[in-house]
Design goal:
Largest interface: A-B, 90 and 89 residues
Radius of gyration of chain A: 22 Å
CATH architecture of chain A: Orthogonal Bundle
Helix content of chain B: 55-70%
Shape of chain B: globular
Low-confidence stretches of chain B: none
Number of helices of chain A: 12
CATH class of chain A: Mainly Alpha
Number of domains of chain A: 1
CATH topology of chain A: Ribonucleotide Reductase, subunit A
Number of helices of chain B: 24
Oligomer: heterodimer
Distance between the termini of chain B: 88 Å
Radius of gyration of chain B: 24 Å
Number of strands of chain B: 2
CATH architecture of chain B: Orthogonal Bundle
Strand content of chain B: under 5%
Shape of chain A: globular
Number of domains of chain B: 1
Largest sheet of chain A: none
Order of helices and strands of chain B: HHHHHHHHHHHHHHHHHHHEEHHHHH
Structural class of chain A: mainly alpha
Order of helices and strands of chain A: HHHHHHHHHHHH
Chain lengths: 329, 499
């Protein structure tokens, strides 16, 4: 048939073989997996003109944010599925332990009425906002141009379920000791109508339909999540500390560990994208578009909190500081 | 008070639907991605997953599962099982990993479609665990074969296969992209999780695990049965959506999705799993025949599930049951004959003892398939191996993208099922394949099969070598007989004795 010399076995996948060192477990199991990126004309092996082929061409391949080799992206934490579960099982064991301890102390029953009402208005409905983060993360997983990016957003989607579950758990628990403020009953109504949530609801609803993958990433990981983390997690945690709600502070801390991890990979992705001419302007245009909505969301959320104005200023500054660290804005 | 029971907070985790007002509901859930079919949002909130899991339980259980699977691998690494295993079994492993690992990772996208676009909040949460599960299945099924890359370049195909235009990879992509990558959320839940995962992954992950355990491959047996425990959970997303469709008068649509997905799954398994179970697995390690596994897992269990949910047996059921005796034998004969075009070394599996087993399991095998193998065997015995390999290409079905096969011998039924559509002539391997095309021709009409590309001049030079190059297969990767034709010795001895 042919006289070509047979290919010799390699010590790793052929696409990693030109590296000088032995690949890590992370590289072996995470890299170059999106076969839809191979044929730009027809990402999926069907009629090139079906709706989903057009969707991926438009919102993934033809994104204004371009890079020659998205597959070169690496998660700085090098998380794989196996290590994610080890990490988060450890975190959840910690959470179970503190939930158990504070339940034994019957902490919820000694809260001031004012704090209970703040939890009902500013914390319990957060499961909706966490769920929207989960939904956008899941969108990014199906749209990102590299498996190493999708994996980060998949873990982020799972982390969002984690935050949502914590909020649901605490809501159910608070309902037991405080049955007059509507824990477990009024959250949807509050999310849809309360002034403090309308900024975030507007931000998230509009962001949920930002279909371009890179705009979706910019919206979520550079604007919306930092804003949510600076308020619903960080800001509320500060107030909780003043109110003696140590449990809330500890819960927020464990969630913020996830958030810090999300920022590490987001920063790495921005850094990689900025090596390509033109991308800085693309990011900045998107920040200009989304930041006013995020600022308004922060103001609305903080408005009725004690020292809300200071909290809002601090939160907005944190978001902008993050952009400055990334060389954006 | 202590820790709350899951049941005390679980419903709140899936009470997350709201009425959008800054964008419309249709913008938030575009019909093409969501597939809610006009059924109002609140009806989807009735979605009740039978298998419930909370985040903390998920990461704990999955950590333990991985710990088990990776520990068994580590413990058995020194036994060098693969180096000493029967080459037929090694071929099963290579074929499995190449066809399954990367598509499993791709299934994450199907799960993510549900996690973002389903209007059922419980579906959206379960699908995040599904995304995680499929990430696991992709990663673990890349990690396990990776250690063998230094044995043969064929192991590279565990990662490489889906990135090539190798015909089997192309067929697998056409199938998976149709069922799970390009459909709306509700269709994914039915076509991927209900029809494919409930029905067929049992075959690949439990049926093959039984063979692996028999063959002494405890690493693989343990791995794939561990995977199936995840499949058994996330496959349960389709049932509740089917219930909602049926309650809202959408039985016809639901039935069509099941019928398309089931047939397409069957055809893929006929070329992948059938040969593994009935030809590659060493005779003494075959737990059951492919047909017996299919009867147990598909006819016994899946058919009952379809009826329980209020759907009908697919219209082509009689043809499917008949095909259990036929299709995979033709596929195997084709794969072995066109062996340079696959990334594993097909085991012929037709030694005299194996033929006795085939005749017992499939009465009439010797008169039909056996008559073709007789010609191959005669040529090998006569020292004419060049007559046992391909000079041309087979006809390929425009739906399954695998060869068009039928039964040879006295019951000859090899037949093309053509269809002219918009001025183009399409070829199909069966009536149901053609029927699948006719349900939504716009999904398939512009796709070119391997043979269409060949005839269109996209494959150059227009010969087998051009085809192999197009498929990404070089010497060192191309398949050859798994046992290096050692099994032919039986027949040479027989012939010498006869003469």
């Amino acid at each position: 048939m042919t006289s070509v010399e047979p290919l010799k076995p390699l010590r790793t996948w052929s696409h990693l073989a030109d590296k000088r060192r032995r690949p890590t477990e992370y590289e072996i199991v995470s890299t170059n997996l999106h076969y839809r990126q191979n044929n730009p004309d027809s990402p999926w092996e069907l009629d090139p003109d079906i709706h989903m082929n057009k969707w991926y061409r438009q919102y993934c391949n033809d994104s204004p944010l371009q890079h020659d080799d998205w597959d070169a992206f690496r998660d700085p934490d090098q998380l794989v599925y196996r290590t994610y579960n080890i990490l988060q099982d450890g975190q959840e064991t910690h959470v179970r332990s503190i939930l158990d301890q504070f339940s034994d102390r019957e902490q919820d029953s000694v809260f001031s009425q004012e704090w209970v009402e703040t939890l009902a208005s500013h914390y319990a409905p957060a499961r909706y906002v966490f769920h929207t983060v989960q939904m956008v993360s899941a969108y990014l997983s199906q749209m990102a141009p590299a498996s190493t990016i999708s994996n980060c957003t998949t873990f982020q989607a799972a982390d969002s379920v984690r935050w949502l579950t914590h909020a649901a758990y605490r809501t159910a628990e608070l309902a037991k000791s405080h049955d007059s403020v509507g824990f477990g009953e009024n959250e949807r109504q509050r999310w849809e109508n309360d002034a403090c949530w309308q900024g975030f609801r507007e931000l998230m609803e509009k962001g949920l339909v930002a279909w371009d993958w890179a705009e979706s990433f910019t919206f979520l990981n550079l604007v919306a999540k930092p804003a949510i983390e600076a308020t619903v997690l960080g800001g509320l945690s500060t107030v909780a500390q003043q109110e003696g709600d140590v449990l809330m502070t500890l819960m927020c801390e464990t969630q913020l560990r996830d958030a810090e991890r999300h920022r590490r990979w987001s920063s790495a992705l921005v850094e990689m994208a900025l090596t390509q001419d033109g991308n800085l302007a693309v990011f900045n245009d998107w920040l200009d578009k989304w930041l006013p909505l995020a600022d308004a969301a922060i103001d609305a959320y903080c408005h009725d909190l004690p020292e809300g104005s200071d909290l809002a200023q601090s939160a907005k500054k944190k978001v902008k500081d993050f952009h400055r660290q990334l060389g954006l804005g | 008070m202590g820790i709350l029971d899951r049941s005390e907070y679980y419903d709140l985790t899936r009470t997350t639907n709201w009425s959008p007002s800054y964008v419309t509901e249709d913008e938030l859930y575009p019909e093409s991605m969501s597939g809610s079919r006009g059924i109002p949002m609140e009806k989807w909130e009735a979605f009740d997953e039978p298998y419930k899991v909370a985040y903390g339980e998920y990461v704990m259980t999955q950590r333990e599962k991985d710990s088990g699977a990776y520990s068994v691998k580590a413990a058995l690494e020194r036994s060098n099982f693969v180096e000493n295993a029967d080459p037929g079994w090694v071929s099963t492993l290579k074929a499995h990993y190449g066809a399954i690992a990367v598509p499993e990772y791709a299934a994450m996208t199907g799960e993510a479609r549900m996690a973002r676009f389903s209007k059922a909040p419980g579906n959206r949460n379960m699908a995040v665990y599904g995304m995680m599960d499929e990430t696991r299945h992709g990663q673990i099924q890349l990690y396990f074969p990776h250690e063998h890359t230094d044995k043969s370049r064929q192991w590279d195909w565990a990662h490489k296969a889906m990135h090539t235009n190798e015909w089997g990879a192309l067929a697998a992509r056409h199938f998976f992209d149709d069922m799970m990558m390009t459909r709306d959320a509700i269709s994914v839940s039915i076509m991927l999780t209900f029809a494919f995962e409930t029905g067929f992954t049992n075959m690949q992950f439990l049926g093959l695990a039984a063979d692996a355990a028999e063959a002494g491959d405890h690493t693989f047996a343990n791995l794939i049965s561990s995977i199936q425990t995840d499949e058994a959970r996330h496959a349960q997303q389709g049932g509740p959506n089917l219930k909602i469709l049926l309650e809202n008068g959408m039985k016809e649509d639901a039935q069509r999705m099941i019928d398309v997905s089931f047939w397409r799954s069957w055809k893929l398994f006929s070329v992948l799993t059938g040969p593994m179970m009935d030809y590659y697995t060493p005779l003494e390690h075959r737990a059951q025949s492919f047909k017996e596994f299919m009867q147990e897992w598909i006819i016994g269990q899946f058919e009952r599930q379809i009826h329980d949910i209020g759907l009908d047996t697919p219209w082509y059921w009689d043809e499917f049951v008949r095909a259990l005796d036929e299709t995979h034998h033709g596929m195997h004969l084709g794969v072995w004959y066109w062996r340079p075009t696959v990334w594993w070394n097909p085991a012929a599996g037709v030694s005299p003892d194996e033929r006795d087993w085939l005749e017992e399991k499939y009465p009439g095998w010797n008169d039909s398939w056996g008559s073709c193998w007789d010609v191959i065997i005669d040529n090998l015995v006569d020292g004419k191996p060049e007559l046992t390999g391909p000079a041309t290409l087979p006809m390929i079905c425009n739906m399954s993208n695998i060869p068009i096969v039928g039964t040879p011998g006295p019951g000859w039924n090899v037949k093309d099922y053509p269809l002219e559509h918009n001025g183009r002539l399409y070829h199909f391997g069966s009536g149901p394949d053609r029927w699948c095309f006719e349900q939504e021709p716009e999904r398939y009409q512009g796709h070119l099969s391997f043979i269409d590309r060949f005839l269109a001049g996209q494959i150059q030079p227009m010969d087998l070598n051009g085809g192999l190059a197009y498929m990404g297969l070089s010497p060192g990767e191309m398949g050859d007989d798994a046992h290096d034709y050692a099994w032919v010795a039986h027949y040479q001895t027989e012939q010498r004795a006869a003469s």
